[in-house]
Write a structure and sequence with these properties.
Layout: E1 5-13, H1 17-28, E2 34-36, E3 50-51, E4 61-62, H2 63-76, E5 80-82, E6 86-90, E7 99-103, E8 107-116, E9 120-122, H3 128-132, E10 138-139, H4 142-145, E11 153-157, H5 161-173, E12 176-180, H6 190-197, E13 202-205, E14 208-214, E15 221-226, E16 232-235, E17 239-242, E18 246-248, E19 279-281, H7 293-314
Parallel strand pairs: 1-2, 1-8, 2-5, 8-19, 10-17, 11-12, 11-17, 12-13
Antiparallel strand pairs: 3-4, 6-7, 7-8, 9-18, 14-15, 15-16
Helix pairs in contact: 1-2, 1-7, 5-6
This protein binds NADPH dihydro-nicotinamide-adenine-dinucleotide phosphate.
Length: 315
């Protein structure tokens, strides 16, 4: 454990649109924020190719480029962006108290305010062979891994916007894509459903679930089950993409920060305030409703303003 303890006004944990927007506002307010990016620098958007719905990009943009732009903008105003993982926290529950944070199990930081923007991570089904074959044909990110399945047959599990987006992305690379939707309809937006339905080499199987992933060291097929008829069928595929939603990254704060039953941080009223004074939450970590880059950015801005006002009120 390192002996030097760094004291700062504002610590931002996580580097998605919420974290970087908080950083832009906090640095412009002279809070001299330090950001720890987490292991996936730039967050979930770095696993997306096209971003067509962020205001200000008439021709769309690329997720990784957009996050690089946000990082540069935050650094332009003085944010200290550091690659590292917060591994434990000891939060003070008193007004004006100092929060203690450990980074990479060695560096100690004392922060007057903390903005939690740790986002959410992809969920898996939990099947034994699905878990065993992660990296051997099972993936939760088509834009990261799709390239490896060029010209092959794959399946996508899920019926939301993520699944629809991943399936249409994969259809451009793969020979054939099958999408397994557990209900008799998709949850995805009408626009995304239209895209799915008009993609030639993409077939949708409704009322169908993944029963098992087949293969010794790599995937060579799946067994699917029709949940109405109970009929099971084996399909030859080399790739299995799981796209069934996300889980908030809040394990660090369990038992200290108030959360709902699914682990999303509860913020007070229209603010980003958590139950702990001086600790604020922004982005997907506190939003299971909208989960968009632009809404995450909006709450990042709010968190920085809330932190600034909290510090001003203490003076
Ligand atoms: P969602 O929660 O919207 O959808 C999850 C999908 O997975 C649903 O079809 C759900 O089925 C299915 N599912 C969940 N659990 C299982 C399971 N155990 N077995 C089989 N299927 C399962 O998550 P998404 O990640 O798709 O989207 C999250 C948010 O992000 C949404 O608000 C979405 O609109 C947004 N988004 C927007 C994009 C864009 O605008 N470009 C792109 C991607 C996401 P069921 O419907 O039966 O619950």
């Amino acid at each position: 454990m390192s002996e030097t303890i760094e004291r700062i006004e504002c610590l931002i944990i996580g580097s998605g649109p919420a974290g970087y927007t908080a950083a832009i506002y906090a640095s412009r307010a002279d809070l001299k924020p330090v950001m720890y990016t987490g292991m996936q620098m730039g967050g979930q958007l770095t696993t997306t190719t096209e971003v067509d719905n962020f205001p200000g990009y008439p021709n769309g943009t690329d997720g990784t480029m957009m996050m690089e732009d946000l990082k540069n903008q935050a650094e332009r105003f003085g944010t200290d962006v550091r690659f590292g993982l917060v591994t434990s926290v000891e939060l003070s529950e008193t007004e004006g108290g100092i929060h203690k944070v450990t980074v990479d199990e060695s560096k100690l930081i004392e922060a007057e305010t903390i903005i939690i923007s740790t986002g959410a991570s992809a969920k898996y089904l939990g099947l034994e062979n699905e878990q065993r074959l992660i990296g051997g044909g099972v993936s939760a990110c088509a834009t990261c891994d799709g390239f490896f399945y060029k010209g092959q047959d794959v399946i996508v599990v899920g019926g939301g916007d993520t699944a629809a987006e991943e399936a249409t992305y994969l259809a451009k690379l793969c020979k054939n894509v099958k999408m397994l939707v557990r209900r008799d309809e998709m949850r995805a937006s009408k626009a995304m459903q239209h895209r799915v339905n008009t993609t030639e080499n993409l077939e949708v199987f409704y009322n169908t679930e993944l029963d098992d992933v087949l293969g010794d060291t790599v995937v060579d097929g799946v067994r699917v089950v029709n949940n109405v008829s109970g009929e099971k069928t084996e399909i030859e595929v080399t790739g299995v993409f799981i796209a069934i939603g996300h889980k908030p990254n809040t394990d660090l704060f369990k038992g200290v920060i108030d959360m709902d039953e699914t682990g999303y941080i509860i913020t007070k009223g229209k603010s980003t305030k958590t139950n702990v004074p001086g600790v604020f939450a922004a982005g997907d970590v506190q939003d299971k409703e909208y989960r968009q880059a632009v809404t995450a950015a909006g709450t990042g801005c709010m968190a920085a303003l809330d932190a600034e006002r909290y510090l001003a009120a203490l003076e």
